[in-house]
Amino acid sequence: QIVWFKRDLRVHDNAALAGAAEMGDPVLPLYVAEPDLRAQPDASGRQWAFIAECLEALRADLAKLGQPLIVRTGDVVQTLEGLRGAFGVLGLWSHQETGNGWTYERDKRVTAWARAHNIPWREPRQGGTIRRLKTRDGWAKRWDAFMGEAQMAAPPLPPIEGLEPGDIPSADRLGLAADPCPERQRGGRAEGLSALTSFLEERGEPYRKAMSAPEPGARHCSRLSPYLAWGALSMREVAQATWNRQRALKHSETPTGGWRGSMVSFSGRLHWRDHFMQKLEDEPRLEFENLHRGYDGLRPAEPSAAVLNAWAEGETGLPFVDACMRSLKATGWMNFRMRAMLMAVASYHLWLPWRASGERLARLFTDYEPGIHWPQTQMQSGTTGINTIRIYNPVKQGKDQDPAGAFTRRWLPELGEVPDAYLQEPWKWDGAGDVLGRVYPEPLIEPVAAAREAKEKIYAVRRGEGFRAAADAIQKKHGSRKSGMPMTGRKRRAPVRKRKANSGQLSMDLGGVSAGEG
Hints:
This protein has 21 helices and 5 strands. The chain is mainly alpha-helical. Strand 1 (2-5), helix 1 and strand 2 (28-33) form a beta-alpha-beta unit. The two termini are 34 Å apart.
């Protein structure tokens, strides 16, 4: 029984591993490092560095169970065929994956191989997304039920003789370019568990208030998103740990401060994470095409290379935008609001096609999750047809989210001479000529004028014939059925006020333009 690990790099609460072991046959745990997958425009060296650390930890955990991880580099179908010839394959197991277009096509080839050799391929769920979902009605209850199931223990694995474990390839061997990310999180299950514990017990109290700003968010958001994206932790164990923490707080005899509110917010974001993944699961084309086709042709098919590169390198001349981008390049993580702002500035102010800027962001995110990234990319670019248009004012965001300027100054030391009052709009400072165009670029655009022009173009589409009918169909298929989903077992309180379902800005801890503020 081959267990093919993909985005589920753990032995605990692993339905594929547990199911294979129950068959009573030898279990071969396999990971295939695929150069063609790493050659895709959404893949990067920082992602692979995190994955490689997860694989080292997974190999050690599997060895404790009796059979270490087998790693092969190359094509999956060719690898499986080689194992079939050498050992015989009775069954193939892997978790369902909401991946990118390349993995979807790859899995179709694996399906054909398995059918050709009469090998059953079993794909249990590992998260809240549901394959071949017919309606969103009742989705949240099904999510709660799935997350409430018992976690699966890691099974013993008798060793298989005659298998070379294989090495975990370097990024260079996979054809990945150098990608320094000096402050990224380390991979591995132990690191994930440490982040989970520290968030629930120590760091998370200011979460609700801190999540929107980049500097406090880096400390007080959960930072679980990369461990969930690559499966070092299961969503079920995170959800249950959060619910347990909520129950403990509810019965605490000492003051809980901001803990209870923050845990309610975080629990809701766990739902929202899978809510967005379900969108790509239901409609894979939205990785490449406007969800609402009324926006086709609105933006240029090809971006201005100079503008795209300036944005991606943190050289737009808009200080807070550039500070956020440079921070992301160095850390591989950014809180949700700032991810949304970066995407919105690219799509509205700079009028870049979302696919081009989305690819650049995907490569920068250590926690890149296609099922969250592409629906959020479109949401922040205004092409879903069902979400409120959010055109962030980057100057105002800088003043609101970095009022003391510490974050901006850390990442833009070239603005050291600019007075605090002009830090977010240095072009208004009398001494701007000594800085702009010399050590820091002139702004690519005038923010207010660029936003006004973009808004006019977007709303012209919305006023077009047939727009509403298409938007209603999209809402019926993809829209949230309710806002505010409670912890399992809690009675729902009557809402204080009504909100439009799925309306615009979501300050999600785990669902930003990738895996969000997790």
